[in-house]
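Title: Prediction job returns without error message
Component: structure pipeline
Severity: low
Priority: P3
Assignee: unassigned

Description:
Job completed but the reporter wants confirmation the result is attached to the right record. Sequence as submitted:
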Amino acid sequence: MKKKRNQPDSVRNKILESLQACGPMTRAEIERECGLKYKSASSSIDKMLQPNLHRSKRPKLLYVSSWVSVDATSGHKYLRPVYAIGNRPDQPKPDAKETKKERNARYWQRRKLKKGVGASIFHFAMSHAKGGLKDVIQQFSTNSDMAA
């Protein structure tokens, strides 16, 4: 028995039903909501964004209503389209340039995560010492004398 694949009409109907029930969503949200794989959802959405001029002059079913900024795990910002039902003009993609201040803030945030600030023994000792570096050295020397 062959496994039945999703037919294009049923995928399109699932997408339209979920958009009608939940409102505008990104492609990833549509995939999760409908339980579809990336390839089938992506190809169906692309087809619904284009008007069908060849056959029945059917208008497009979806349009890009807005764009949202998504931070990926790598720390990069990505603009993702938000799809809605209708035959309206697509919202133009905004400029993704970030200011120098935003870029520097993101850089230092990633650097802290990579470096693991506070994860070394030295940072731990410095954060728990009351009198500063002299107390840390003195505590370390007394502990090493006791161990010998």
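Comment from assignee: result matches the submitted record. The mean pLDDT is 76.
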